[in-house]
Amino acid sequence: MRELIFRGYKKTRNYFEGWYFKFVDESHDLILILIPGISKFKEDMAFVQYILHYKGMVKSGCLRYALDAFEIGTPFHLKFEHGFISKDTVEIRIDDIDIKLQLKEFTPLKTSLFNPSIMGFFEYLPMPCFHDVISMNHEVVGKVKMQEETIAFKGKGYIEADRGKSFPKYYLWAQCNHFKKSNASLFLSVADISTKFFKFLGHIAVFYYEGKEYRFASYLGSKVTVEVSKDKQNASVCFSNRKHTLRCYIELKEGNTLIAPMHDKMDFKIKEQVKSYIQIEFDDYQDESSFCASELVNWKG
Whole-structure pTM over 0.90, yes or no? Predict the structure, then answer.
């Protein structure tokens, strides 16, 4: 299993690392994104970015800290002024909102010497950004208290991580584990891959269905086609290999602002939508969801 760990102990400059936690309760009334991380560019800092949707209320922002105010330990945990985050425990206070959640029954990806992570053999090469999928789906229980209301949280979660020098110059990313017909989970990314040695449009996607992982990736020889509408409001993606085809149609709505590493700074603004509509076709199976997280950044093509 790919563990959630901090990999940047020896990095002193031009480096970022972030961990993405998504939580959705079973009623779909409460959706929470937490992104703790560190950046070491011209200005070092630690942070926790957040997006919270509860019924008609939306809150988003970034809690900023001095780098030494973030205690990072092994096994993975973060201690900071407003809370504690580990792989199986999240306790954080954001303004007047208290969040206490427990995570269990994780769904990791398969790994091997050739595929140590979702990056495949690219994990061993010098890349501007490394991506990890820690859990495609898991159980989440706990409580969220806001104002005078205490919400008993029971739902699903997803965890991924990124590290390196910069996000891709342009990319499409989406994730969903709240489909109508099944307990399926989906992650996909199509991105510009630019290094000193090669440049191409790379792709990785995982569809986890009925207890089995189906992976599409550039390093596995699968193919991808992408169509994005001129107004950037809709995207259609098709992944295919010799055995399977995965088609996704995503409605890209205006999202909440997050900051990302780009151009040697941790201040590039991107938008993430946590309630995108998605339709999927995996071979003969079809499904849909209105609770897909998505990002379309600087798309060219």
Answer: yes
